[in-house]
Here is the input.
Amino acid sequence: MSGFARRLGGIPWREIAGEAFSRVFLVAQAVCAVHVVNAHVCSFALVMGPSMLPAMNLAGDVVAVDLVSARLGRVASGDAVLLVSPENPRKAVVKRVVGMEGDAVTFLVDPGNSDASKTVVVPKGHVWVQGDNIYASRDSRQFGPVPYGLITGKIFCRVWPLKDFGPIDPMSAE
Amino acid sequence: MAGPWPLLRSFLRNCVAGTLVVVTVNDRYASVITVRGTSMNPTLESQQGDRALVSRLCLDARYGLSRGDVVVFRSPTEHRSLLVKRLIALPGDWIQVPAAQEIRQIPVGHCWVEGDNPDVSWDSRSYGPIPLGLMQGRVTHIVWPPNRIGPVERKMPEGRVMQR
Here is the structure.
């Protein structure tokens, strides 16, 4: 028994603890670095659903999101953006900005059935967002202009599927 | 190993590591804000230089905000500025708007915020319900100055909100 205790005492606990601590700290640093890049510089998102056809697929595209330009207020109309849905804060949606604050936006109220159109002026600090596929999109036509603060980032590049890799051009939704 | 370079390099390395950790903690767990303006008197007083601790844990998967919490959110009209107000009503609630003498329902995914000092507060009574997605955190404690250190209480106006 005393031999066992002596052997326990011989183990360099202090060095082991120091080593373990520095390793853990290194891992923590890496996790923090990933978080900072993912939350402030550039992030990826999986886009699904019919509302952005034909710019984005039905089945699911992975796109790269530029978070810096949204933070600096450089989002302009024509950009595809990732935003927090105003109807469900847990959900992020992809739409195209059609009008910035002060713009007059004309849209079809019910594109499938009638050609009645309506014009609204976007209030201060808000943007008007619409899906490219106006027949199957829930957007500003239903819930009105959204505050700019809900915009998370600007989508600038498709990453997956690889054969469609490339920039997503800003274009008008008309 | 000549000159001060190894020392300088390790110093810079520690600085970068520290910044990363601080930014992450600020984003995910808690941060400290300085209060400006008088719209939250007497709960938070900018004349005294109040600093408040903002918890961000409530923004996780299940939106853990309750009626009566003091919340921080992005201004709906100016995305660069943050506002501090009290959360009065959640989606589906009915609220009586004092000035307009009407009762309205909060739409899905929105909430109603008001300042504690109704005379000077610019809040949902002017811009209507705001999306919950603008929320940035919940004010839990006052951390400075020392004589005002303490938790921020949950409080509701009487008889104006019909909860869903």
Notes: The CA atoms of residues 24 and 153 of chain B lie 27 Å apart. The first strand of chain B starts at residue 30 and ends at 34. The radius of gyration of chain B is 20 Å. The mean pLDDT of chain B is 87.
